[in-house]
Amino acid sequence: MINYPEKLTLAQTPTPLYPLQRLSDQLGGPRIWIKRDDLTGAATSGNKIRKLEFLFAEALANGCDTIITSGGVQSNHCRAVAILGAQLGLKVHLLLRSDIAPQPVGNLLLDQLAGATITHYSVAQFRSLDSLFAQWQDHYAELGSKAYAIPTGGSNGTGMWGYISAAEELAADFQRHGIAPSAIVHATGSGGTQAGLMLGCYLHQIDTRVKAYAVCDDSDYFSDKVRADLQQWQSQYSPETDTSVLQADTCADYVGPAYGVAGEEIFTTIKQLAALEGILLDPVYTGKAFHGMMEDIKRGKFSRADGDIVFIHTGGLFGLFAQQHHLGYGDSDSNQ
Q1: Range 91-130 burial, b when 16+ CB lie within 10 A, else e
Q2: Is 244 annotated as catalytic?
Q3: 24, 45, 70, 75: the active-site residue
Q4: Measured between alpha carbons, how far is residue 229 from residues 3, 219, 252, 254 in Å?
Q5: Average pLDDT for 14-23
Q6: What residue ranges define each of the domains in the chain, with the CATH number in brackets?
Q7: Rg for the chain, CA atoms, rounded
Q8: How much is the pLDDT for 335?
Q9: Are strands 308-313 and 183-188 parallel, antiparallel or unpaired?
Q10: Using one digit for the tens of pLDDT, what is the confidence trace for 283-329?
């Protein structure tokens, strides 16, 4: 029995799991299943809500009235925090990374609609993120408020509980469908979902490989980040659990030019999957990971003999709207 900490009920779970049969037949590899964590909410959709159920509970338990968090200008995490903060009556302050003046589109538009306070910082300034968090927490303390800091992506020991719990949900999915997947595949950017899934499969005795596709940085970075998150979780919640046996399996071959920047092949994959299966990916996270998985299936890294594999759709639809010009649909599009 796993003793979960207190959480709020914010996500619409369990989310659906079903096979992408047409795509699987087309690729000729293993049967691909998709876990629709993009359906955890409406405007709050995505994997971040699972983490935020635990993080917001901790914030409220500590008597906080303000939430500070950080991310890229099109951060799905920041958008979810902004909207959930509004729903819970909490002030939200977002520290967003951008070297250019951003347009109010996609997730940033929703941040603004939700009434979040937004401060933009350059990439260079973001290297001192810890001091920025401390500066703003001191600022709110001087105003008589108490601010709770959530790290980028909600990725820490507390946030990991979201995907420890999701692994338990997956175990029930697998039993219901009568499958034993050889791999669980997902996008990784801040490492928290990755660490949570790895630990969740370990704790719930799910015998499968957790394979992450990086959307930034390299595999060494994720090995270190996941190890740090696991150690923090162990120290805070379960000193008797040996997390050192868990090693991150991260593919960084499909990161592309940079975080948030996707090549033409990613947009091609996004269009192909939308037309074939009615599944909408984004160019920052799920598009890169799904494209990487498809390419690795074509290269034989996942074979039909492996049986089933499960892709965790972690959301990101609103980020697609911010890059829709890359899809190549103009006024004279032939699909009229």
Answers
A1: bbbbbbbbeeebeebbbbbbbeebebebebbeeeebeeee
A2: no
A3: 75
A4: 18, 15, 19, 24
A5: 98
A6: 17-46+156-327 (3.40.50.1100), 48-154 (3.40.50.1100)
A7: 19
A8: 47
A9: parallel
A10: 999 999 999 999 999 999 998 998 999 999 999 999 999 999 888 88
Report the side by side order of strands in the sheet with 66-72: 117-121, 91-97, 66-72, 147-150
Which of these, 136, 131, 57, lies nearest to 93 by C-alpha position? 136
Residues 6+ apart with CB under 8 A from 114: 79, 82, 83, 85, 86, 92
Rounded CA gap, 192 and 40, in Å? 17
Distance, in Å, from the CA atom of 325 to the CA atom of 251, rounded to the nearest integer, reads 28
The verdict on pTM exceeding 0.90 is yes
Strands of 151-241 (E only): list them: 183-188, 209-214
In this structure, what DSSP letter does residue 129 have? H
C-alpha 146/C-alpha 158 separation (Å) is 19
Long-range contact set of residues 118-121: C-beta below 8 Å, sequence gap at least 24: 118/93, 118/94, 119/93, 119/94, 119/95, 120/73, 120/96, 121/95, 121/96, 121/97
Segment 87-116 shows an average pLDDT of 94
Report the alpha-carbon distance of residue 102 to residue 299 in Å, rounded: 38
CA distances from residue 285 to 30, 37, 260 in whole angstroms, order as listed: 22, 13, 8
The residue written with tokens 């538009």 in the block is 109
Which pair of tokens denotes residue 150?
């959530």
